[in-house]
Amino acid sequence: MQNIPLAERLRPKTLKDFVGQDRSVGKDGIIRKLLANSKRTGFFPSLIFWGPPGSGKTTLARIIANTLEKEFFEFSAVSTSTKDIEKVIGKGKGQGKQSKLFQPIIFIDEIHRFNKAQQDKLLPHVEKGTIILMGATTENPSFEIISPLLSRTRVIVLEQISEKDLEKILKRAIAETEVKRIIENAQKFLIEASNGDARVLLNVFEIALQLSKTKIIKLTDVEEALQRRQLGFDKKGEEFYNVISAFIKSMRASQPDAALYYLARMVEAGQDPLYIARRMVVFASEDVATPTALVVANAVFRACETVGYPECQENLAAGTVYLATAKKDRSAYNAYMQALNDVRRFGNLPVPMKVRNAPTNLMKELGYGKGYEKYTKESFLPDKLKNKKYYHKSNDD
Questions:
Q1: Which one-letter DSSP state was computed for residue 288?
Q2: How far apart are CA 39 and CA 42, in angstroms?
Q3: pLDDT tens digits, residue range 209-235?
Q4: What are the pLDDT digits (tens) for 129-165?
Q5: What residues does 107 pair with on adjacent strands?
Q6: Is the pTM higher than 0.90?
Q7: Using CA atoms, how far apart are residues 198 and 181, in angstroms rounded to an integer?
Q8: Is residue 390 part of a domain?
């Protein structure tokens, strides 16, 4: 029994023992409603569990399978081919009445890693009801799951486990082990550093227990066991886009504190500093009133390119504060986007003769450049657009 990791030993077997996710699993949660309806109708839908690591996706799938008394087959999209899944599905064929009773639950962890063709192969089995598909993903299903499959499943959104619920899980862990107690500051740090991930909480607790000679877990035990905090940040996933979006919007709103926080999130998660610096260069042209901002942003990019981590995080921080506190003005950017819209709408409108280039005598005879005056208020726009005003100076000036 002791060879089984603590996280697996404490994995709930029933909804009664499940901690957290009240919106989905609580008294009026959708999971309970679906299970209750299934008792009456015999039908249970295919589900996609979408949530961060350690939020209970696999556990819920297993609990549902136990409650429905269905055969449960667990796969990981990283190491599984669709042929492996089809072999399991094929067990029900050719068994007469028994085949109708055989409706296994096929659980696929990290289902977002299946490509379109692999997901397509699952579709007919879900449509016919020969399987109940349960997928687990940390990525937004809208982007990662093909539309036909998504339309035939219910998406269950799971959240990070709250600190209050992590404390309940930790109490169960203490009761399950020979630990005498955990010092208050160690418990607080462990819960905070787990970042809403119950699996991290239990794994770190178990290691800390092994490191403690007295079976009294201290802060130093937790720090040594943890090494560094777990940060959920897939460089191609939704959280990546959420954090970079928050970073840019914080600078745009002139909130240096928020911008520095999101910068630190990206740096700590190992994001490429050149990617961050590129976004700062773009931001400097789009949002900041002074041209000096572009000089600063380019200098930050060059510094990151030359120095690299860990030192270049200081360059990123300095640039972030400058851009966040600089006066904002999107007049140039907005004016350009309006001009671009007219180009796409009207195509290549004729350039007025007076501003055309006249490198030859023939062109001069045809009127190219005729009537051009360097200092004039007369519009040089094509005739169709001559009354257009794209650029409006910011009212903040």
A1: B
A2: 6
A3: 988 888 899 998 998 888 755 555 555
A4: 899 999 999 888 988 899 999 999 999 999 889 999 9
A5: 74, 134
A6: no
A7: 19
A8: no
- Tokens for 158? 């799971």
Instruction: Return the structure tokens found at 353.
Output: 């003769």
* CA gap 22, 50 in Å, rounded: 15
Segment (H or E) for 250: helix 238-252
User: In the listed set 179, 204, 226, which residue is the last one of a domain according to the structure?
Assistant: 226
Cα 19 to Cα 32: distance, rounded to the nearest angstrom: 14
Question: CA end-to-end span of the chain, whole Å?
Answer: 72
Give dist(CA 172, CA 189) in Å, integer: 18
| Residue 395 CB burial class (10 angstroms; 0-12, 13-18, ≥19) | exposed
Tell me, yes or no, whether 120 lies in a domain: yes
Please list the residues that pair with 105 across neighbouring strands: 72, 132
Residue 199: name the closest of 58, 19, 18, 53 by CA: 53
- CA atoms of 302 and 308, how far apart (whole Å): 10
Whether 21 contacts 55, CB under 8 Å: yes
Q: Is residue 282 part of a domain?
A: yes
Residue numbers of the domain that contains 372 = 347-385
User: How far apart are the C-alpha atoms of 242 and 235, rounded to whole Å?
Assistant: 11
Pick from 78, 105, 81: which is nearest to 92 by CA?
A: 105
Residue 60 belongs to a domain: yes
Tally Cβ neighbours within 10 Å of residue 48: 23
- C-beta neighbour count of 179 within 10 angstroms: 18
Tell me how many domains the chain contains. 4
3-state secondary structure of 136: strand
Question: Tokens in use for 303?
Answer: 């510094």
